[in-house]
Amino acid sequence: MEIAMVCTRVSLLILILSLCSPYKFIQSPMDFGPLNLLPTTTTASSDFGRILFQSPSAVLKPQSSRDISLLLGFLSGSSLSKVTVAARGAGHSIHGQAQALDGIVVEMCSLPSEIEFYKGGEGEISYADVSGGVMWIELLEQSLKLGLAPRSWTDYLYLTVGGTLSNAGISGQTFKHGPQISNVLQLEVITGRGEIVACSPSKDADLFNAVLGGLGQFGIITRARILLQEAPQKVKWVRAFYDDFGTFTKDQELLVSMPDLVDYVEGFIVLNEQSLHSSSVAFPANVDFSPDFGTKSSPKIYYCIEFAVHDYQHKNTNVEQVVEVISRQMSHMVSQLYSVEVSYFDFLNRVRMEEMSLRSLGMWEVHHPWLNMFVPKAGISSFRDLLMDNISPDNFDGLILIYPLLRDKWDTNTSVVLPNSGSMDRVMYVVGILRSANPDDGCSHHCLQELLRRHRHIADTAGARIGAKQYLAHHPTPSGWHQHFGRRWEQFAERKTRFDPLLILGPGQGIFPRSNNAAYGS
Ligand code: FAD
């Protein structure tokens, strides 16, 4: 044991020297004692965005939390080293957030995929203990076997638990249960100092809160305890169309005010034929709606609300009746309400069906210049106008999601940044501009740069004018990050000093660039 530790330390020293050397010599798998450190791969330097490709010098495929602790413990103990480390979940970031230029990428999916359940009795909670590299789809598949499921989701499930908890994790259930970070009971985290810490709201709460929505800056999540609830067997899934933005948002706000009846609320802008039939693979209703989209100079756009009601077969709830009660209060376009009943699994896994369809058309592995923003309720109309001034509906490829969230479902002690709540509105919105740019369809370098420039303009203008904040944020400069955090910057930076003083973690976010051997704040 002792000998193994000494070997590991010596090997790590060689590693650090090799990474700091101008002549990188990691070309083949290296024996770093028990650490499975490998030469870089193309996967480690790419992500879903396909915009940035930063190559690390090595990849760690950890077999246990201890492997990560050894690596970080050694790097944080050596002021010699400038080596940075990024945890990589499923790599579904847009702007290289899980990349580490010339550093080490820790591939979280190499951790043994452990999922353990505790099923509470009547009146007790149920939960699952899962490794940080487990994907939500795996947790769903396993938990359904026990009739259970997490309460809060993302739209797409091929994302890791550690990856979404480092951001927030939102979807149509967020209005009811809060984001995924509001549904975690406990974490195991390896800090930037290499310490393995079990933390929760009552133990090492500051680390717990820092890591949730912490953009991978304070520690690597190796385990999480996720709250579960009874899973419905089926879901009644409804879509209703609107031709007026004010009516659309008013109805969305009505729906989120009825959490006893409604289980999911989202919505999207119908810009063109393609968005009208968005995710029609998963939503197999016969949509008999042929709107007039106007002309290029005078486009007409529409809106679609999606809501869902869970169907628990043993409860004998009449979901048809529940939908009827809800929809009677809505003001959608006449006859433009469609519904389908699908299994709970298919409902949650709906984006995977779209993925398979897009893959078969060669349209999945393209550039994704996405922009997500949290918008205060008071500014949602101006945000819509800003958006429409900066996109052309006739050639927009992708989806624009808009749906309301409720502030009081978010814990403001976590690291997540929301718009200031000056007006005390309980409602805020999330808007996701989920755009594809296909080089084979004429959108290569120049076109992509132009789309990114426009998104930056939207983000900057909406930030300055209406106090909107980016979700899954990307800021090219540290000063952009200072502005993003606003008055929360000091707390974020202080937590960094405490949990990752040598600025080793999360270099791809660009929040704390590592300058010459300085610890943050020194
Ligand atoms: P990665 O991209 O691998 O990592 C993201 C960040 O987290 C990086 O900074 C990384 O260093 C850090 N990180 C990763 N693992 C850990 C860990 N174990 N511990 C500490 N830090 C870690 N998001 C939503 O909220 N709602 C949605 O509905 C939604 N839908 C999406 C649909 C698609 C098709 C895609 C591509 C993305 C979607 N996202 C959504 C965004 C997604 O939640 C984030 O991009 C998330 O980071 C992806 O998880 P990942 O496992 O791929 O993380």
From TrEMBL:
Flavoprotein as a keyword of this entry, yes or no, is yes
Q: Is Oxidoreductase included in the keywords of this UniProt record?
A: yes
GO MF terms here are: cytokinin dehydrogenase activity; FAD binding
An example of a Pfam family matching this protein is FAD_binding_4
State the top-level EC class. Answer: oxidoreductase
Signal sequence region: 1-22
Keywords in alphabetical order: FAD, Flavoprotein, Oxidoreductase, Signal
Q: What is the required cofactor set for this protein?
A: FAD
Q: Alphabetically, which GO biological process terms does the record hold?
A: cytokinin metabolic process
Which residue ranges does the record assign to the FAD-binding PCMH-type domain?
52-231
Q: What is its EC number?
A: 1.5.99.12
Q: What family classification does the UniProt entry report for this protein?
A: Belongs to the oxygen-dependent FAD-linked oxidoreductase family.
Q: How does it assemble?
A: Monomer.
Q: What's this protein's name?
A: cytokinin dehydrogenase
| Origin organism lineage | Eukaryota, Viridiplantae, Streptophyta, Embryophyta, Tracheophyta
